[in-house]
């Protein structure tokens, strides 16, 4: 018992030190340029740099970094607490109308900050607001352009392997089926703040490391897909009390991270990437493969590609992007 308590204290001490180091990194963030500002979503994304804490063997290397700031939604149970908070200022009054400015003191009302450090040029491009165009990716385009590029230039999936290997986010995992072919890990997505159920966002990550995206799926993967669909919805309803009929389960095509995973969010959550330009419902995927095993190897898949990416340049050079289309803005 005594040994266990000592272990616990040591682990807690190590975690506190890790937290302090990570907060220290955030404090050294210096803004370089604004990548995106969305007043409706109350979100800004900034490119910046982070200098090392002190001159070190890295030779004072400054990292590029991406910082995402998002105002959190209101916590409806906390409204009284919120308006009673000490830091309030009257900014306008006329008859029965008045405005106040409140500086909330409770964590729940604060800003969610995501830091990517070090960030690659690819990260910066992903978050930068830019025009994007539709591509209709045939199987030939996939094999000749997309696949070689993603094999050379895809985002690292180190964070996924860390989760599967239990090196990161271990305490976040809600469910795991350890079977290497049909199993998966279910945990909160980095986009969720972990509190409001109406913005619930989880990700189910397949243990199978050979599956890059829906392009690789065939009949042999039906047990995995059905497992994710059935087990995740059951677990989410048990743990969070959100019924299966209130959940949206889908895969992105094209995904940012080419390790097969399924996005699971509350149907009321208006998040980027949930619409037809990127989202393929898991139930449709299952149905399509049941009808035709090589459906996703044969099908032309349409999606948006942002104009500053290598993929766009390669597709355009080969004449696969229609020049007459009206561009939209990318989401992330
Ligand atoms: P995607 O379709 O490959 O990319 O989905 P995108 O939607 O980001 O363009 C990957 C999903 O994994 C996204 O919903 C990310 O928010 C989520 N995600 C990314 N990272 C780096 C992490 C992470 O480190 N931990 C967790 N829990 N989720 C992540």
What can you see in these coordinates?
There is one protein chain. The protein has nine helices and 15 strands. With 332 residues, the chain is of the alpha+beta class. The chain has three domains: 72 residues, no CATH class; 37 residues, no CATH class; 200 residues, HIT family, subunit A. It has a six-stranded antiparallel sheet with strand order 8-9-10-12-11-13. A four-stranded antiparallel sheet has the order 1-2-3-6. The longest helix has 26 residues. The chain starts with a helix and ends with a strand. The structure holds 7N-methyl-8-hydroguanosine-5'-diphosphate. 7N-methyl-8-hydroguanosine-5'-diphosphate binds next to loops.
Fold topology:
Blueprint: H1 2-27, E1 29-38, E2 43-50, E3 63-71, H2 79-83, E4 88-94, E5 97-102, E6 111-116, H3 121-127, E7 131-137, H4 139-153, H5 158-164, E8 175-177, E9 184-188, E10 201-206, H6 222-240, E11 247-252, E12 261-266, E13 279-281, H7 282-291, H8 295-298, E14 301-306, H9 310-317, E15 328-329
Helix pairs in contact: 4-9, 6-7
The structure holds 7N-methyl-8-hydroguanosine-5'-diphosphate (M7G).
7N-methyl-8-hydroguanosine-5'-diphosphate binds next to loops.
Concise account of the structure shown:
This protein has 332 residues and is an alpha+beta fold. It has 3 domains: 1-72, no CATH class; 73-109, no CATH class; 130-329, HIT-like (HIT family, subunit A, 2-Layer Sandwich). Helix content is 30%, strand content 27%.
């Amino acid at each position: 018992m005594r040994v266990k308590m000592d272990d616990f204290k040591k682990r807690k001490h190590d975690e506190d030190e890790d937290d302090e180091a990570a907060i220290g990194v955030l404090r050294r963030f210096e803004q370089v340029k604004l990548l995106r500002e969305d007043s409706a979503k109350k979100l800004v994304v900034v490119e910046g740099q982070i200098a090392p804490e002190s001159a070190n063997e890295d030779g004072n290397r400054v990292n590029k970094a991406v910082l995402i700031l998002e105002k959190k939604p209101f916590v409806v149970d906390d409204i009284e607490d919120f308006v009673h908070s000490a830091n309030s200022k009257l900014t306008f009054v006329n008859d029965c109308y008045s405005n106040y400015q409140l500086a909330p003191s409770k964590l729940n009302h604060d800003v969610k900050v995501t830091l990517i450090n070090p960030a690659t040029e690819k990260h910066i491009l992903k978050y930068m607001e830019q025009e994007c165009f539709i591509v209709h990716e045939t199987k030939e385009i996939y094999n000749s352009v997309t696949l070689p590029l993603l094999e050379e230039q895809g985002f690292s999936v180190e964070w996924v392997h860390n989760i599967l290997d239990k090196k990161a986010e271990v305490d976040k995992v809600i469910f795991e089926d350890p079977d290497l072919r049909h199993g998966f890990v279910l945990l909160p997505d980095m986009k969720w703040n972990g509190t409001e159920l109406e913005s619930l966002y989880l990700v189910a990550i397949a243990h199978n490391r050979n599956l890059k995206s829906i392009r690789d799926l065939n009949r042999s993967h039906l047990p995995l897909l059905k497992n994710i669909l059935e087990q995740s919805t059951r677990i989410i309803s048990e743990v969070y009390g959100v019924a299966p009929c209130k959940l949206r389960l889908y895969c992105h095509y094209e995904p940012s991270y080419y390790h097969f995973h399924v996005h699971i969010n509350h149907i009321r959550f208006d998040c980027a990437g949930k619409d037809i330009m990127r989202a393929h419902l898991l139930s449709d995927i299952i149905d399509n493969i049941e009808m035709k095993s090589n459906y996703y190897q044969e099908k032309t898949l349409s999606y948006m590609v942002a104009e500053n990416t290598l993929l766009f340049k390669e597709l355009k050079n080969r004449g696969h992007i229609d020049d007459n289309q009206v561009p939209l803005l990318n989401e992330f």
